[in-house]
Specification:
125 residues, alpha+beta, 60s Ribosomal Protein L30, Chain: A, six-stranded mixed sheet, 2 helices, globular
Length: 125
Amino acid sequence: MTRDARLPEGLQPPRPPYSPVVVSGDLVFTAGQVAFDADGNLVPGGIEEQTRQVLANVEACLRAAGCGMDDVLKVSVFLTDLGDFEAFNRVYAERFEGPYPVRTTVRAGLADGLLVEIDVVARTP
């Protein structure tokens, strides 16, 4: 299978050596997305604001691959503080509809200021 790397509109190209989105066959894989806006700045606010930006970045990645949030099969969530889970989950529920994708949520030591990171696996329609 080929590895078709994509750069989504509205996302800064990554500095480290990785692709934000890779399409292989009908599967789509995103790199971990964090709360950077289109200019590469961390959005102000707490977990809710960061989660909204992260999910907008995930959606941009999916659009670059020709799919959307309804095509997501698997979500991996990394939170710096599991005490933020309830607030995170409220925002998450605004962007996904049932039946929900499978999801794993873990506590992680993210870079300073980052509260949440999300990557997904989707299937193109």
